[in-house]
Amino acid sequence: MEIQLWRSILCPYELAVKELTVKFEHIINEHKQNDLYSPIEQVRGRVKSVSSILEKMQRKNIPMERMEEEVEDIAGVRIICQFEEDIETVASIIQKRTDMVIKSEKNYLKHIKQSGYRSYHLIIYYMVETIEGPKRIQAEIQIRTMAMNFWATIEHSLQYKYKGDMPPHVTERLSKAADAIISLDREMSSVRNEIMDAQNSSQMQSNLVKDILSNIENLYKVSNKREVMKIQDEFLRVFRTKDLQQLERFHRQLDIIAEGYRAQAVYHNM
Ligand code: 0O2
Description:
alpha+beta, five-stranded mixed beta sheet, 9 helices, binds ligand 0O2
């Protein structure tokens, strides 16, 4: 196939990877903006390289004209979660979406691969708009924890190095490492609530500080400078206490002050 043809075949897949990545990143942002714990920690996407596509087609005996149907992971998105429990949450978010239609699912968490590989895979149909009109493509979404990802990345590199002929002592080490990853994920899950609480508090504090600073900035425009300096000093004092409740109280008080100024401005403009 000509290089130019490869480029035009892969172009809609590039678009799909970009769009899907943005959509999943948006889910993270929406959770953060609402002071909620995000089940997605990180999103990565890639279009499979031509050499990997050709290698897969050769390995699976796929003819050129069946490539787009049978190589399901030309577009690939990897979603990294902090905890094993989050994987199910993310899978159900995807299942409920109207812009991603699920073709198949593989649960390598329940059915761990011989290699020790664990991950949750979804093959979806996804519509992209091209200059030739809409095109339905397939994309693979892999959902796994950070620990699972660490193992899979190392194992993938070793598979590449040994080209499918891994020495038994390396296989054995990887298998032991896979067991250690299972224990690590379990251990982390057992302190999940505490970690989530800590992360939620930190996100709440960051949102509160952002709101407070924006309020103070607005007050600068409408109120007496010395008054605002006093408010700013008070904010710094409350911030240093590291007490979220005090910060929330200060935020509410500042809202009332800002509301007062808004009411005054409306009155003067009447
Ligand atoms: P890439 O893009 O280099 O990661 P197959 O692809 O033939 O192995 P199948 O049925 O097409 O199998 O899909 P499957 O088993 O769901 O695997 C698809 C992808 O999952 C692989 O893509 C890997 O990314 C990942 N994967 C599956 N098994 C393993 C494993 O044992 N170790 C690691 N590290 N990753 C695995 P590709 O095609 O390898 O390409």
